[in-house]
Design goal:
By secondary structure, this protein is an alpha+beta fold. It is built from five helices and 23 strands. Strand 10 and strand 11 form a beta hairpin.
């Protein structure tokens, strides 16, 4: 064993050193290129940000904001909570150490989640509302769950003290990752269960989602990281992969109004209704570009922040779900399949681009910020067939 360690140590260190050096040189090249590049302003035609959207709870409604700070996991407060279901126990009857006991749940399985509002965490001074925490609410950072058809409101305390009070922890699976999360309590779970209880009736299993739980990330837990398979060297810091919240795979999603306009043009030509941008649940929406020009972006500057474009975002049946009513149809997937089936699997269709922010400390973006494209390159799509879930 000692001999193996002696042999492998320099190899491992050499690889890590190469990543660190490569990351540093890539960033230097990008900053030098940006410094020398003459940026030509083109009035109202210059690309700019027209929308910023934060999703406090994965798969619940988005919150439109005029500005937003960045943190190491993406937009501040974006997808830090999610819904999970218990996994069936293994044949042995006991989960092994490190094995996920729960699995994430989204609109893919429960489209009625689109009916639920989730507010950005804020101070709560209304002691008459029910709460999932017994802490001093006036000093709490509170996310409020609500539904247009339900007068009930559920407060979730997301302050450090509040999260520390949630003692029921799970290991939850999000695609190929397993992360430690904290259950925020029965009130939040029952509220969500009551809204989505009919979503599984058409399935063979007849799932009523009576075991769904609401969970939050734990600040002290091991951070989830983006896939090394796609992250460019310049997006790494000291050789470390970027952190990710509870998004499907990458921290930020950037979408273009012109790309949506092209998709809607095709829908209308077929006698179908246009769809809103909310179907694609982006974080940042930009205007002033050509349709799908964002496919070729590699690095962009928005406000005082720099973003690395990672790869295209494959779309699923969630994009066919009305983000107000939860009703599901066949579009836009059918039409996207006609001109955006770009991956290795003919069923994988793409809209919008995943991105990673660089050096997020003190950085923010706001509606109206100019978008400067620093570098371009060939589009990147999924190397493997996208999982259906």
């Amino acid at each position: 064993v000692t001999l193996i360690i002696i042999i492998l140590t320099p190899i491992v260190l050499s690889r890590r050193l190469r990543i660190i050096i490569g990351s540093y040189l890539s960033r230097c090249h990008l900053h030098v290129y940006h410094g020398r590049r003459k940026i030509v302003e083109n009035g109202d035609k210059s690309p700019c940000v027209t929308g910023i959207f934060v999703h406090p709870v994965k798969s619940l409604r988005a919150v439109s904001v005029p500005s937003c700070r960045l943190d190491p996991s993406g937009l501040e407060n974006d997808r830090r909570l999610m819904l999970v279901k218990p996994r069936p126990p293994p044949n042995s009857g006991v989960f092994s150490a490190g094995q996920a006991t729960h699995r994430f749940l989204t609109q893919r399985q429960a489209p009625s989640l689109a009916k639920i509002n989730a507010s950005l965490p804020s101070r709560n001074n209304n002691s008459s509302e029910s709460s999932s925490s017994q802490n001093n609410k006036s000093a709490s950072s509170v996310c409020v769950l609500s539904c247009d058809s339900n007068k009930q409101k559920i407060n979730i305390d997301l302050s450090k003290k509040g999260i520390a009070s949630y003692t029921q922890h799970y290991l939850a699976g999000v695609w190929d990752d397993t992360i430690e999360v904290a259950d925020v309590g029965d009130e939040a779970a029952k509220f969500v269960q009551g809204i989505i209880r009919h979503d599984g009736e058409e399935d063979d299993a007849g799932d009523t989602f009576g075991d769904v739980r609401v969970v939050t990330m734990i600040p002290s837990a091991k951070p989830r990281q983006a896939s090394e398979q796609y992250v460019p060297l310049a997006a790494m810091h000291a050789g470390q992969l970027p952190a990710v919240g509870l998004t499907d795979g990458f921290p930020i999603l950037i979408a273009s109004e012109s790309s949506l306009a092209e998709l809607n043009r095709r829908l209308i030509s077929k006698g179908k209704s246009p769809i809103p941008m909310s179907r694609f649940r982006p974080n940042i929406v930009v205007t002033g570009t050509k349709p799908f020009e964002e496919d070729t972006w590699k690095a962009v500057k928005i406000g005082n922040a720099m973003f690395h474009i990672v790869k295209g975002c494959p779309r699923c049946k969630q994009s066919c779900t009305d983000q107000l009513t939860g009703e599901r149809g066949e579009e836009p997937l059918n039409t996207l399949a006609e001109f955006r089936a770009l991956g290795n699997n003919a069923e994988d269709v793409y809209f919008a681009q995943n991105a990673i922010a660089q050096n997020t400390a003190g950085k923010s973006i706001r509606v109206g910020d100019k978008v400067t494209v620093l570098t371009r390159g060939d589009p990147v799509w999924d190397m493997d067939a996208v999982q259906a879930e």
